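The instructor's notes for this session suggest beginning with a concrete chain rather than abstract definitions. Hand out the sequence below and ask the class to guess, before any prediction is shown, which regions might be ordered.
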Amino acid sequence: MAKYFDVHPDNPQPRTISTVADSLRSGALVAYPTDSCFALGCQLGSRDGMDRIRSIRNLDDRHHFTLVCQNFAQLGQFVHVDNDVFRAIKAATPGSYTFILPATKEVPRRLLHPKKKTVGVRIPDHAVTQALLAALGEPMLSSTLLLPDEDEPMTQGWEIKERLDHTVDAVIDSGDCGTEPTTVIDFSGGGAEIVRRGAGDTARFE
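After discussion, reveal the predicted structure:
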C-alpha cells in the first residue's frame, strides 16, 4: 500500500519531505504535486522506477521523460544550453514549462530519446516540489500522472492513493492540483518549437 503524506502547500513540513526524499533514494515511486498537475517521480538512476512509470502510463520507448530540477545550476549539469536558449529558458523559469534539449553525459543513456539523444528538463514553481528537490539534492526522473485512455490527470491526492495504491509507494497531497500539463518547448533544433500547449504561456516562444 502507498504511504499517504498530507503536506502544507506553502510551508511543507521538513520532516515529512525528508522522509519522502529518503524513500526516493531507496527506490520508491512517488506521486507528487507540481505547478501544472500531479506527476510520477523517482530517483534519476532508478531503472525500476522508470519501468514502473512506463507500465502505469503505457508509454513506449520514444517517450520523453523529464528531469525535474531545483534550479538553473542543476539543470545546466544535464543539458547543453547555448546563450540564446539560456536567456529564453531563464526568463521562463521557474514555471509550467518543459524544455527538450540535447543531453550531457550526466544523463543515463536509457533516459534519452533513442534517436535525438535529448531529454526534457524543467524547474517547477511549486513550494512542495522545490522542498522535495532540495532535500533530495538531485533532479527527479518524472512524467505527468496521466493514465492510459484518460483525457485529464487526476487532481486529488486521495483519489490517486485510492486508484494507484498498489502501483506507487507514496502519494504527497498538498491540495487540489491542476489538470493542465506543462507547455513543452523543443530547443534541440536550435529555435523554439512548441510541441505541446499547456499551463505555461507560449507567447514568449512564438
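Then share the key points. The chain has a mean pLDDT of 94. Residues 66 and 120 are 4 Å apart (CA to CA).
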